[in-house]
Structure formats: structure tokens, C-alpha cells
Amino acid sequence: MAIDRRKFVSSVGLGLLAFQVDGALVALSPRDAKAQSVPLRVLSAAEARVVDALGDALVPGAAAAGLTHYLDQQLAANSIDCLLMIRYLDVPPPYAEFYKPCLASVDAASGKLHGKPLHDLDAAQRDDFVGVIQRGNPESWGGPPAPLFYFVLRSDAIDVVYGTADGFAKLGIPYMPHIMPPSNW
What we know:
The chain is mostly helical. It has helices spanning 5-12, 30-35, 45-58, 67-76, 96-114, 123-135, 146-162, 165-171, and strands at residues 17-21, 24-28.
């Protein structure tokens, strides 16, 4: 379903994002983009595995909700339109220069701590790893500080999993936006 500019602008208010599919802009939720295997534009397959594994360790359900596709779509978009937490922390764009070194560092640090990449760790080892990056930079960490990356990626995962009317309902919290969106994502 290709969309024109007018439909795209109105769709953004619904919680949909513009994904490039076969050369056309398509309005999809991150979950739908994942389900349709929309090709990633910025993140590599290895980086996507890290986002899925760490995202689920930080916020259960983040991978299924399409965190990787959300992150990739936002990194490919114009930084002025970016919805990622990093934009609000006064970090200069391009934001991929923040995420990519951190994603590479996750597997390097996981390998140093547990002898294997994060996606191969069991739940207890992943929880241990999350505790380590929450407190400071583990050995083999490169790029921006690990606690900052923890905060940013966790915030992004929360946005994807719980930043909708359905997400609020899962938490048992009334969804009371100033303007109710016509549909959920």
C-alpha cells in the first residue's frame, strides 16, 4: 500500500511510521514492519540481533513490538523528525553515530564477560549483563557511556511497547491524551 504525502502526514498522527518498501513509502507500525520483514536501512543484521536481544532484556516484548524496525526507521529519517530519546538529550546528530558503537560494544563486552554474544546468553546472564551496563562501562566497551546507552535504548523500547493506548491498557493505566488518536499502532 503506497501512500502519497497527504496520507502520510495524516498517518503519522495515528502512530504509524513511514517505511521504505519496494521503493515506495508505506505507513506501518513497527510491529507490522517487523512482521512484513521490511528491509533495514541503517542497522546491519548483527546490530539487529543485538537490539532484539537487549531490547527484550530491558523491556520484555520489545523485539516483537518492532523495536529494531522502529530504531532503524528513526535513524534513517531526518534528525529533525526523530522520535528517539537521544534527540532530547542534546546529543548532536547523526544519531547512528551514537547507537552503532554501543551496539558493537554490547557483543564485545558480552563476549568478555560471558564468552558469547548477547543473543546467545540465557535470561540470567542477560540480566547480569544489563546490570553491568547500567552501572558503568564494562571491559571492552567503546563509544558513548554504557549507562547512557542503557537509558536511551530502554526509553526507546518503552516507547515502542507501552507508548500506545494498548500499551497503557496492558499497564492498567487510563490513556488520557490531549487528542485521542483515531487508531492504535
